[in-house]
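User: Batch of two.

Assistant: Item 1 of 2:
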Amino acid sequence: MSFFKKIFTKEKKETLDKGLEKTSTSFLDKLGKAVAGKSKVDEDVLDNLEEVLVSSDVGVTTTLKVIDRIEARVAKDKYLGTDELNKILREEIAGLLSETNSGNATEFEIPKQDAPYVIMVVGVNGVGKTTTIGKLAHQFKSAGKTVVLGAADTFRAAAIDQLQIWADRTGVPLVRQEMGSDPASVAFDTLESAVTKNADVVIIDTAGRLHNKVNLMNELTKVKRVMQKVIPDAPHEVLLVLDGSTGQNAFEQAKQFTAATEVTSLAVTKLDGTAKGGVVIGISDQFQIPVKYIGVGEGIEDLQVFNKIEFVDSFFK
């Protein structure tokens, strides 16, 4: 099918296939059982399909949307064989992802602009936020960009130290202060340093505390406001990192953070160790925020630019 033409490198595609292997195997096994003994898509098959999608962490809202679309096709075509269901599901899920994820990027890119491009990274502790920042720094640097990191999660000494390890590993400068320092002050210093160095990309880590949403909101708002004293339209991107292996819990985290600040893109991590990869489809659809990056392995190269065509292809492998 030409719609799913190969636009990743062979190595990237193999990594993506391997990373989504558990999700794909689990989903297709369930789908096979849902249509066993049936020759056409009827009410029973649709009920079973609904169960398959919900149990694959696609989420109830998105599942109902997919079922409605398939029902509409059944009504239009009058007859739909179960042998066609895989292909139709694939098309409908790709269509849903297309509504939020308009591009088909395969490389790590940033818009061309005069000032450094500022990415503020948010997410709860333990989702792979610092690792994602380190891998992003590596990818941007490999693409020929100059990168500056800012350790504005000053609530935990471990977060600052972990980011320092990644900065050393990737060979990019890190702006940091002592634990307990004002996060906005760190962000301000980072942007000043980036402007002085004429850097291309700035990535700012922020605290992952969700116990008090009002405090989190106030802190992130202050960080933004102070950054704008250096670069008036910063941050250019607010990237929410979610742990894909937590399934429905990732939906809850997305809900909390989108309420606390304006999230503009998503990174979904740890997809390689789970059968819950369907969460990518549900979160992208439900929150209408593009998934920009996915983590499909532990290696430094295993953070990939999310490409909806290749994702759906691997999902239905």
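Item 2 of 2:
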Amino acid sequence: MADKPEKKIESKYPIKELMANAEALFSVRPEVLVGALHGVKASELSVTEAKSLVKSFLERKVN
């Protein structure tokens, strides 16, 4: 029987560390990351989670 592939567990980083590296990780300024994380209760996020939040923030329709 073939084994199921293992799920990759992603590391989580403190919000401050993600903001310090926002330009390198997400190609946005730290201020954009602050806006994307507005209302998020977590103190740590994975890079993938943060990228998803930034993407949805940037694509949000302006009223």
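The two ends are 55 Å apart (CA to CA).
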